[in-house]
C-alpha cells in the first residue's frame, strides 16, 4: 500500500490505530494534540517549561520498531520516590528537548533512536491550555480537569477554546494534512483530544484544501464528563461545530454488541455506554452524505475494551 495517511487526535486514542496501520504503509503521520497538563507529562511541562511529552510518546511507541527491551524502557513508570508515576519515555523526550533546544528536534531524534515507522508531528509548537465552556456558564481551564469539573457541575461541554490564545499550526502538520490520501480524525476523548487539534489556526483550512478521504473513527464507548448519553450523531455534530459542516466522507463504527457483561460493568463504574449507529444516526449520515462502515472493532484485554487495531487497519486500507 502506498497511500499517505494522516491521523489527527490524542496519544491514547490514535496510538491504537497507528499500531495497525504501520503493517500496511510507511507513510503515516500522527498529528498530535499538545494540551495535556495532567500526570507526569503535566509535571514536566510545568517544571521544565516544555511542551507536554505524553501524547507524542504514546504515538512514538506505537510506531516504534525498536527491540522489545527498549520498548519496555519507553513504557516504564517509576514506582516510588520523587519520580513516582513518572514515565521514562517522557523523561527521555524532556532530556532531548533540553539538549537540542526544541521540541520538534527532540522528537526527530527520538524517532531515529526508536526506529519509528512514519512521523509523529505536534499539531502546534506553542504553549497552550484548554478552556472548556459549560452549559452551566462555567469556564474550566485545563485539559485534565475539564471532564472532571463538567461531571461534578452537571454541565455539558459546549465549546473548547485555548489560553492565552489560539496558536498557529505546526507547518509540518499543515503539510502532512494537505498531502494526505487518507485523513483520519479520532478515536479519542472528543473535547480534550480530538477537537483541540481542529481549532488550531490553519488546521481546518488545510483539511478543506486536502483532497484526502476524511474519515471519522468513532469511540467504542461514551465518556464520563465529556460525552455521556452522546450518540454517534452528537459526536459528529460537536466536531462540525468546531470545524465545518460536512467535514467527513466516511464514519467507521463498531457493531459488536456481544460483550454485554463488560458493557454493563463500564456503565456501573463510569456510567458509559457503547456507541453504535442507530436509525437516527444512519438518517443523519445519509443526509450528510457520509458513508457508514460498520464492523467488529472490539478488542478486550483484562476486561478493558479497546479498538481492534488489526480490523480497523484492514478496513482503512481497503478504502
UniProtKB/TrEMBL annotation:
Its main location: cytoplasm. The keyword Iron-sulfur does not apply. GO terms for biological process: regulation of cell shape. It is found in: Cytoplasm. Keywords: Cytoplasm. One of its GO terms (cellular component) is cytoplasm. One of its GO terms (molecular function) is LPPG:FO 2-phospho-L-lactate transferase activity. Coiled coil: none annotated. InterPro entries: CofD (IPR002882), CofD-like_dom_sf (IPR038136), Gluconeogen_factor (IPR010119). Required for morphogenesis under gluconeogenic growth conditions. Belongs to the gluconeogenesis factor family. NCBIfam families: CofD_related (TIGR01826). This is Putative gluconeogenesis factor.
